[in-house]
Every structure is written in C-alpha cells, then in structure tokens.
Amino acid sequence: MEKKSGAEALILSLLAEGVDVMFGYPGGAIMPVYDALYHYSEKLKHILVRHEQGAIHAAQGFARVSRRTGVCLATSGPGATNLITGLADAMIDSTPLVCITGQVASHLLGSDAFQETDVIGISMPVTKWSVQVTRACDIPSAVAKAFYIASSGRPGPVLIDITKDAQFETTEFMYERCTGVRCYQPSPKLMKKQLEEAVKMIDASSRPYILAGQGVLLAGAEKELVRFAEKISAPVACTLLGLSAFPPDHELYVGMLGMHGNYAVNIQTNECDVLIAVGMRFDDRVTGDLKSYARQAKIIHIDIDASEIGKNVPTDIGLVCDAGEALRELQKACLPKAKTSWLDEFREAEELEFNEVMQEELFPESDGLRMAEVTRMLSEMTGGNAVIVTDVGQHQMVVSRYYKHRSRRGSI
Fold it and tell me: Which of 123, 122, 102 is nearest to 114 (CA)?
C-alpha cells in the first residue's frame, strides 16, 4: 500500500467523498494541504477568496444550491476564527459544511505558539461535531466521519483541525466511508403512539393549519406535504427558509410566515384549533410574543431534531423523525376533510392586505420603479425557478414576499 503525506491523504479523502470544488484562503499552517492540492487541481477545483469568512459563506451558498456538503479551508489562529460567523450561520440554518483548518505542530499545542488558537473549544457551540487531528493516519477516518455527520439527520457544519506535523507525516492511505457513529442517531424512528395521538387530534379538528419549514426541503418531502395538506384540506404557510416547500399557486397555499410575512398567515395562527409545524423551529421572527402565540391551538411539531420539540412553543405532540416519513404516515392514517369556510377566512384577509398594501407596491401608478414591482417582474420572467441571492434587510424581505418560489433550489 502506497504511503501518502497527511496533506495528500486529506485531498484523496475529499475526492473519495465526491468533492470537486472547495473554497479557501491559504496560510502557513495549512500550506502543506495547498501544496498537495496543486497536484490534484484537475480533479478538485479550489476557489480562492479574499477572506476566510468569504470562504465559508461561499461554501454555504454552494451547499444550499447544490444540496451537497460545502467544503472550505483556512489556516490556524485568525484564519480559523474568521470562520466562526459562517459556522454559527450554518448551524442555525442547517447547512452541511466540512471546514478544515490548519493548526500549529502538535508539540506546540498549549504553548501559545504563533497563531495558535483553541479552535475546537471556540467552535464547539456552533458545530455539530469538531475534532483535532494530530496524526496523519487519523485524517481519512476523521474526514469520513465529518461528511457523515454534516449531511445526515439535521444537517450542519463540522470542523476538522489538523496540526501541521500531521499534514507532513506519511501514512498508508486507505479510505472507507462512514455509515454510522455510535451514540448518534441521525434519523429517529417515528413512534407509533405519538403518530396515533396526532391522527386523532387532526381528525377531531375543524381548523387545521400547517406551517412548513426548511425541514420539508431538506427531507425532500414536498410531494408528501402537498398530499397531506390536500387530504385534510389544511391551509399551508411557509417560513422564510421553507419557501418553495409548497407550490405558491396551490389553492391551499396562504403565504409566508413571520414579522415580514403575510397578514392572513400571521393572524390566523391565533384562530386555528390544530397547528401542525413541519421542519421549522418556531423562531422569534415567526412567533413574536410567545405569551400570545397560538394559545388556543393544540400543537403538533414534526422535527428530526428532538431538541427543537417544545424548545420555544409548548408542544402537545412531538413527532421526532424525518419529515417525509411523518407526512406519509399522517396522510395514510388521517381521515379526509372537506373544504370549509376556514380557508375563506384566509382569502378575505389576503384581499384586505392586497388592497391596502400590496397593490400599489406590485402595480404602482406613480413614476419610477418599486422593489416589489421589479421582483414581481423577475418572478414572472423566470417562472419562479431562478436562484435568488440577497443580502439581509429590506431587499431580502421584499424578495421573500413577492418572488413566487417554485424550485427547491430557488432561494438562498
């Protein structure tokens, strides 16, 4: 078996995981990896950024559009700490990333050597998993585990910190993909008892309401959501990150949730009798004052991450499992419901919002262009299937409200 340097073993491990593009910014402690990368430039494209934060945000964008795990490189110390904002963002938004940082040589750890930083300790609160590698032979298994953890269950970022001597050290290279980690259950099984209780609650309801989050998209459960909503004739609203989880031209779609969302969507939260939250985390931008949020409703929360159940909003029934599995089983078990005046209440509020707010924004009579008008035109021209990239703030909210997202890859 041919021996490889730790740096080359890293590159070969990435290739074995199907990585063909990565983002990064070089520095002393990660330079051995860059030297090895030179010999594989035809297979693995490296995109040079001008700041490590740019590298991780680029990797995030790549992951969100491609539905693959994004990869970025940074050096030790200030290079590694410049990744923290992106790690926190990816953690909250469930974006799969593998971030690789260089570190001082292992014999210098703990000595406050030049550009030494405890990146594992710093990154631990904002990663699914982080590990420091001090031996070349441990690099392939660390990469395999990192990709498995980043992309399974609720996706998120992981970080591998590799000492400089481990990058230089030689090892016999062998790679085996990770298929499981002890004490880590990425896809919990749907509990039959909770499912039966949820079915009874939904069958007894007269004003069911579905809130769809990004978890629907991550599970690839858009079709299951449509079938379930149609079976029980429930209005469906989407969170900001859940946009495109439900067809915007479907008769049951009622708009976007949250403080910058639609009028009907928000006020009807306090009028439903059963609230079914799918793959969303009841963010404060959605709920507002928790003391007055949906107090009248029974709440069913579906999420693959058990820590989200009851975290912000008290939950009557929690289904901890893949969103697609839960929606399929609910669709099979729930009794069909006929359409009622419940949906009409949404339409009345929508009409009021359109006449009082949206009409002038979308179809202005005055001279000049409005943001909403331009977004509407862009939506019509692209059929709702474009990749839309915005910064934060007003323009993000306008695009979210007025662009009719139809594609799973239609929003970043």
Answer: 102
Q: Which of 112-116, 121-125, 307-311 has the lowest mean pLDDT?
A: 112-116
Q: Using N-to-C axis directions, what is the helix angle for 222-232 and 323-333, rounded to 10°?
A: 30
pTM of the entire predicted model = 0.91
Going by DSSP bridges, is the β-strand pair 298-303/274-278 parallel, antiparallel, or unpaired? parallel
Read out DSSP for 324-337? HHHHHHHHHHSPP-
Average pLDDT (185-194) is 93
Output helix, strand, coil percentages for the chain, rounded to the nearest 5.
45, 15, 40
**38 Cα distance to chain centroid:** 32
CA distances from 64 to 88, 151, 158, 196, 264 (A): 15, 12, 16, 34, 29
Check residue 408 and give its pLDDT. Answer: 57
Which of these, 142, 133, 117, 127, lies nearest to 88 by C-alpha position? Answer: 127
Q: Rounded to an integer, what distance in angstroms lies between the CA atom of residue 102 and that of residue 133?
A: 10
Q: How many CB atoms lie within 10 A of CB 42?
A: 6
Q: Say if CB 122 and CB 84 are below 8 A apart.
A: yes
Question: Each residue of 119-149: pLDDT tens digit?
Answer: 999 999 999 999 999 999 999 999 999 999 9
Q: If DSSP codes are grouped into helix, strand and coil, which group holds residue 107?
A: helix
Nearest to 278 by CA among 259, 299, 254, 301: 301
Euclidean distance between CA atoms 388 and 275, whole angstroms: 30
Reported as a pLDDT band with limits 50, 70 and 90, residue 412 is very low
> pLDDT tens across 352-362, in order?
999 998 888 88
Tell me 289's DSSP state: S
CB of 27 closer than 8 Å to CB of 79: yes
Rounded CA separation 286/266 (Å): 8
Exposure string of 119-155, with b = 16+ CB inside 10 Å and e = fewer, is bbebbeebbbbbbbbbebbbbbbbbbbbbbbbbbbbb
Q: How far apart, in whole angstroms, are the C-alpha atoms of residue 74 and residue 55?
A: 8
- The answer to whether 318 touches 309, Cβ cutoff 8 Å, is yes
